[in-house]
């Protein structure tokens, strides 16, 4: 090593030693490190205060919806299946048809019974009219008998008439009075079956009408209708199956009114309130679709309580497990129409908890039905219209005759 290199090495060694012993440089280095940690803590605090503390988030959330079970209401044999899995159906559309031979026979019998009941009440009305005429005739006979007796009484006083004839006249008056009483009783009995109502409202006709309505509805139930619009799933019915009332044939799932069941940890529920806005993201669209909803209710218990086999926590071997409570979130139907979801899909849910002054639980019962259909009301109204037609048809003959 040359003398120059040896001198340079000696100078570098001395400078390093001086730097290591310089307390100012060490202090500055520590301050820089401390500043970095303080800045990171400040950034974390600001992130928590302005972002993380204003929301709660979970990925344990799934799409929920109504699953309308389609079942038979009358026994029968399947002769046609008009909808299959994945197909869309409208409310009131026929899904399955059953053999209607027996039901049609009972309907024909009920139709004849209703017509016969109307004609029977018409006959009773005519009989009551005839009974009234007999009462009038009996009263006339009584009046005549009383007039004859009245004319003969002065003759008896003058001994111009035999007592036997007068006695016969008195007996004739008594018989005429008895005939009036009998006629009035028959008229009252005839009117008892029809008075107070017209033919259509007569109890006999009403009973026959109810039987016809039941037979008509039973015949219509051989065609199984969709109570709501939706998509068919879980079709299990096959041609030729002999089905019984209540047997499930398929399921219709309406994909319009869906909701989210977000299962938050119990530690996340402190600030969740009804009415808070929520944001939902589904992997179905790769995060491109974002749904906006609101909290409409919190579950009445944890999922473990309502499970098939609830946990028995009162045991010796117990481990604390954080529980989750389902929070229901309503979705915007317009967004669902634009980006349809499927029930059971997993989602990421974020609830904005900045406004936590609302209710935790619902305070009043809802005034709107959760689900409703008028398909069966239409069936009943058609049955009534057909019964009215039969009644009018059997009354028209009497009107024409009069």
TrEMBL record:
Pfam families: Beta-barrel_AAEA (PF25963), HH_EMRA (PF25885). The chain crosses the membrane at residues 29-51. Residues 1-21 are annotated as: Disordered. Residues 166-193 form a coiled coil. The keyword Plastid does not apply. It is found in: Cell envelope. InterPro entries: AaeA-lik-b-barrel (IPR058634), EmrA/FarA_HH (IPR058633), MFP (IPR050739). Residues 1-16 have a biased composition (Polar residues). It comes from the Bacteria. Its main location: other. This is Membrane fusion protein (Multidrug efflux system). The lineage of its organism: Bacteria, Pseudomonadati, Pseudomonadota, Gammaproteobacteria, Lysobacterales.
């Amino acid at each position: 090593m040359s003398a120059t290199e040896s001198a340079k090495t000696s100078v570098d060694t001395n400078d390093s030693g001086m730097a290591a012993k310089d307390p100012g440089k060490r202090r500055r280095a520590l301050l820089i490190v401390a500043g970095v940690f303080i800045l990171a803590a400040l950034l974390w605090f600001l992130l928590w205060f302005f972002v993380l503390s204003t929301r709660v988030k979970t990925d344990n959330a799934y799409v929920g919806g109504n699953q309308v079970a389609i079942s038979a209401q009358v026994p029968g044999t399947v002769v046609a299946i008009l909808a299959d899995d994945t197909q869309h159906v409208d409310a009131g559309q026929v899904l399955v048809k059953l053999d209607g031979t027996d039901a049609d026979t009972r309907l024909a019998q009920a139709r004849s019974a209703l017509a016969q009941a109307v004609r029977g009440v018409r006959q009773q009305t005519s009989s009551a009219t005839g009974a009234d005429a007999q009462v009038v005739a009996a009263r006339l006979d009584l009046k005549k008998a009383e007039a004859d007796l009245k004319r003969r009484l002065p003759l008896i006083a003058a001994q111009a008439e035999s007592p036997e004839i007068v006695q016969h006249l008195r007996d004739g008056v008594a018989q005429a009075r008895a005939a009036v009483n009998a006629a009035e009783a028959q008229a009252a009995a005839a009117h008892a079956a029809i008075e107070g109502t017209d033919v259509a409202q007569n109890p006999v006709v009403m009973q026959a009408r109810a039987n016809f309505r039941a037979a008509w509805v039973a015949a219509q139930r051989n065609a199984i209708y969709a109570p709501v619009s939706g998509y068919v799933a879980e079709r299990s019915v096959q041609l030729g199956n002999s089905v019984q009332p209540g047997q499930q044939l398929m399921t219709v799932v309406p994909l319009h009114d869906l909701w989210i069941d977000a299962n938050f940890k119990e530690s996340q529920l402190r600030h969740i309130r009804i009415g808070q806005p929520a944001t939902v993201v589904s992997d179905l669209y790769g995060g491109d679709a974002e749904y906006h909803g609101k909290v409409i209710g919190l579950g009445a218990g944890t999922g473990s309580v309502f499970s098939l086999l609830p946990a028995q926590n009162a045991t010796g071997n117990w481990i604390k497990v954080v529980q989750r409570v389902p929070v229901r979130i309503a979705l915007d139907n317009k967004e669902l129409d634009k980006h349809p979801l499927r029930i059971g899909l997993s989602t990421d849910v974020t609830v904005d908890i900045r406004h936590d002054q609302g209710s935790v639980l619902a305070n009043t019962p809802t005034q709107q039905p959760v689900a409703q259909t008028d398909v069966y009301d239409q069936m009943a109204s058609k049955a009534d219209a057909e019964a009215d037609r039969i009644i009018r048809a059997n009354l028209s003959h009497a009107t024409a005759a009069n």
